[in-house]
């Protein structure tokens, strides 16, 4: 194969070149995958995740030093009675080289996504999230100058901040809930030149997150036996599985896929329920009853995705089944204690979602679901907020445009976004 990579559809088996393609051209209900020319992992002398450039769907790289950092745990490992615990940390922790200043592994997704889009000349990205994803895309926009349209509920806009000025973000606030802003974001993508970021369908997002598995396996010198992560969409779990399959094919890291141990935060645990019931589809009435009330009660709200890529071919369910994995439902109280234990033993504060993963590992160790000699990779998906607040500047992202729920994307509003796009095109031409 001459190209660095192709996209392959696991539904129909077709391979084709990438045009920032999110769906199979034949319409299969399947997640496209990257297939790279290099079968063995070659490390590049580049910063951050671009060390793993050969297994990212990009040609160049960004000069950003925000990658996952891996180390062998001493304190937490002793507490859990584990001999081989590799922590892979994504967040802000300068003593260990952690430079993700918005404090979550969403920066692993945002970097290759922004670069892939730029290289394919596909247009301007649109993202609907006021959580860690929205913050990460604003930050990478601030660091690279890449234009991004972010659409969020007005009430959540205060959660978007960056540590560098982000002059190329068009923040649109919608006076409504998340569904209203997602619907409005979709409308904005009807403008020529605006492209939806794509979520789990975006191979750059998954392969960016897959660098956690690569980094952890390199640090330990082998694939882990078990991989622990808290999931909302489960994209990180799919990414870990895909990266592990590549390492198996490489041949130097072991031949067995790590079992995925994925956790959600009670009372909102749709994937745990669907898994335990053996369901291919998530059935809202069974798997997420009273969704709104349940979502309001979890401590880690980044784990409350209502439409995870569960039963789709190549999705979370396939990843769990292929790896012999399991799922955990974790209470707020258990997550809180686990977060405190982590802060005491490893000396960094955690994102509430990462605390859920630590709680699942605690339970697995207690119940003998992982043995003391097994090699464990703990994906600490976010942390270091307290350190970041002490060390770094914080710039709130200011709204460019405010709309009402259900307001049509037409007239003045549409013109305002079009003018912003024209201005951005001018900025790009002058750069
Ligand atoms: C998004 C997020 C998760 C869940 O990730 P998915 O793999 O997309 O489900 C976990 N932890 C943190 C800190 C996150 O931001
Ligand atoms: Zn197909």
TrEMBL record:
Pyridoxal 5'-phosphate binds at residues 132, 381. Keywords: Coenzyme M biosynthesis, Pyridoxal phosphate, Transferase. GO terms for molecular function: cysteate synthase activity. InterPro entries: Cysteate_synthase, TrpB-like_PALP, TrpB-like_PALP_sf. Its cofactor is pyridoxal 5'-phosphate. Its EC number is 2.5.1.76. It holds the Pfam family PALP. Gene3D superfamilies: 3.40.50.1100. Pathway: Cofactor biosynthesis; coenzyme M biosynthesis. Coiled coil: none annotated. The modification N6-(pyridoxal phosphate)lysine is found at residue 106. It is an enzyme of class 2 (transferase). It catalyses: O-phospho-L-serine + sulfite + H(+) = L-cysteate + phosphate. Residues 101-382 form the Tryptophan synthase beta chain-like PALP domain. NCBIfam families: cysteate_syn. Specifically catalyzes the beta-elimination of phosphate from L-phosphoserine and the beta-addition of sulfite to the dehydroalanine intermediate to produce L-cysteate. PANTHER family: SERINE / THREONINE RACEMASE FAMILY MEMBER, SERINE RACEMASE. Homotrimer. Belongs to the threonine synthase family. Cysteate synthase subfamily. This is Cysteate synthase. It comes from Methanoculleus caldifontis.
